[in-house]
Amino acid sequence: MAAYWMLIAILLPIAAGFAYLALGHGPQIVRRLYVMGIMILDSVLVAALCLYTPERSLSFMIFTRSLTMEFRLDGLGRLFAALLALLYPLTTLYAFSYLEHWRHNRPFFMFFLMSYGVTLGICFAGNLLTLYCFYELLTLATVPLVMNQMDHDSIRAARTYLIYSIGGASLAFVGVVFLIENGISSFELGGGLWAEEPIEYAVYVITFLGFSVKAALFPAHVWLPRASVAPTPVTALLHAVAVVKAGAFAVFRLTYYAYRAESLRGTWAQAVVLGLCAVTIVFGSVIAMRQIHFKRRLAYSTVANMSYILFGAALMTREGMSAGMQHLLFHAVTKILAFFCAGAVLHRTEKEYIRDLDGMGYSMPLTFAAFAVSSLSLVGIPPLCGFVSKWNLLNAAAALGTPWAYFGAAALLISALCTSIYMFGVCARAWFPKGGKLSGEKNEADWRMTVPMAFLALTVILCGIFAKPICDWTFRIALGL
Amino acid sequence: MTMYLMLFLMGLPVLAGVLLHPLHLRGAARKAWCIVTAFLEAAGTLLLLFQPESSFTVLSMTDTLTIAFRLDLTAKIFAAIAGFAWLPVAVFAFPYLEHEGGEDFFFSFYLIVEGMLFGMDFSSNLVTLYLFFELVTLTSMPLVLHSLEKESIAAALKYLFYSVGGAFLALFGIFILARYTDSLEFAAGGCLDLSAVRGHETLLLTAVFLAVVGFGAKAGLYPLHGWLPTAHPVAPAPASAVLSGIIAKAGVLAIFRLIYFSVGTSFLAGTWVQYAWLGLSLLTVFMGSMMAYREQVFKKRLAYSTVSQVSYVLTGLFLFQEKAVAGALLHVLFHATIKVCLFLSAGAVIRVTGKTRVEQLRGLGKAMPVTFWGYTLASLALIGIPPFSGFVSKWYLAEGALASGVPVYAWLAPVILLVSALLTAGYLLPITISGFFPGEGFPAQERNEGPASLWLPVIILGTATLLLGVFSAPIARVIMTLAESLV
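Output (structure tokens, whole complex):
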């Protein structure tokens, strides 16, 4: 396909978002068909782009020779784009049901559409400048989604999110400038900067920290649990997949495409980032156990799991990169499923706290069956997909064999135990209520929620059972094939 | 044929358990459904014992992560205890649960666990073993929280987290081990790549040590034994029976497979790891007996007894001596029979009289003679009085320990086993004595044993503990060949 299709895939949802405002007072069915139509159209376009990848890159807005906007689609970008193309239409369907009686659903769908285009921009970014631009845009496009409810809490959450994200991006900006000054223009696997000087290590650490704010690395994780006040489709898609994974994606780009990963392996820079990831893994899991608010517990779980991905990235080996990418995919489907379940409960019964979930498994059987699948995968029970990526992460850590890698591997296992406690605790409450209130009124979510949940639960199972092609694919990406 | 039989044994109970609730079976139909399933499983197990060895792969997730099954002698031993014990306990469970309700709930999971246990017995590599270890935990946990009271839910969660925590400890060991083995498939003597190990011995030893401690959670090995005495008193008696008698052996199986089929004893013999394991297991033997001796709640006493007795088995496995290994495997068989019988008799007492504490059992021998006879036979077997079955396995264990040549433990182990046997007599026999001989002036009691399905399994299993001892020679011979091929 011609390279300009990438630009169209990015601009289509953004333009459609603006156009949605004009359409805003039309009948609901028209608006829904419009949103769904755009989502599916764009996803088909992205799928086509992934299958028939443009050979050439697309450059435009050439400010100077080193400052250009460039779009290019390589393996890593395809991986993330394919994930988005799968999840955006599903979440849209879910959101139709969730936002049925919502007051502010006009701005919601407008920004929701735009966030799709912007995230695709991150996937397709061919150099650091482009990545950085879309990275900032993603913050701006998603802030209105966080404060969609326009009450005190959500505005506060949006403000926190804005401050953290912009702050992180400005840290990363240091690195972007530094790398561009050093002649790193386009991303190329193994073609980045060979770090030798202390300043180059320091810049790596700073940039890593900057990009990983979006991936909720300790101590910059604060925004993520707070942002769980947002409507569930946002928490599910953006705060478990698109936004946080964009942070991890940027870290992959930085580590393997802007730097030469080999040059960082075994240095103090690696020790710092591995250590921080390990700390976040344990920290997020432990705090998640102590949360009594359902969505916030899942948010802390995301904090921990995002650091699994960053940990894989920071191993600076092909195995680590490949395992990190696997966890990026598998955690995305698993966690969005968990959030969908939490949202379905919230939507049907307005129960936000875990203590209120007693016996809910019998009134919402499908939802909690799906939640059980998600729990099993997140804990890492074979043959579900969460196990495969964890296994490969542990193997990659052991292959590197430095003390920090073992430290991280231990953190992963402690976290797995914590995960079993905070996820199975919810399942146990829902299915085995105290006092045996087994019968409950059937109050299942409608098909627009259950279909995405069932589909994702099936995906989680199938991705685990047929993990081999996916693992091979990520490994080929890590090899640059 | 063998493959289909194995799949049948794994699949049938899962299918039957899953369908139980949706089919809305009630009363006799439900009873027939469960008992026929358990019966088919027992018949299938009997058939399985005469099948040739075989193996097959079900699924390859990635190159190293495969789900594969095999049938060998080890699998047969462990499958036998699950297959044969499930039927009498199922028969017992129906009258037991009559007044508690929630039969659908209980029997669904009761049947599913059996399938999972077969999966674990048949697993052919560490990944499959780990998978089914977790699944056994997840599906047996609902048996514990059957009453849905606060304490039983807390106990079930304790069991869940101890077992899952142990499994993760084991997983840590497995993935380090995976780096130093040719494959994760089981092979007698292990498949360690010694040239790769060189220079990393400490790491590997630590990993294997932790893995065994982790798997030990299910077998009640100190320090992860804590869930057993909490879970047993609150679980229904049939659940306690299979948890103690059969599911605890799943931990033993995992440890046995790890040591003898993945790592190999030659690498472990004489290292600090072996001594540490022996220390832990002997500590558990002694501590479990002591706690049982002091405990006044009947089922809790039996739970501590399980803690102690399963560590007999582990001690035998950690000695790396063929007689000790044979003794351990014999004790797996015998202890399963004995402990199921003991828990069922405790359950029969609870069901008929509602009495849970040891001192309340005075004079009950007159009211429930058959149950108490079954209890007494099993007690004598557990203490190890010839010609009961427990004697045979303990004899092998002691002989193996003395011949093992492991410093200190070679004599310490038999001493502790002996002391523990005394304690066993001390905590089991008083119940028989005060049951049959309440003393003068004790009011005579009406005979009331409850329905036959309550006492028949008890007396049958009690007799089996005696017969297994009397006719132990052929079993011991087969197991001895297995043990000799491993050490």
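The first strand of chain B starts at residue 54 and ends at 60.
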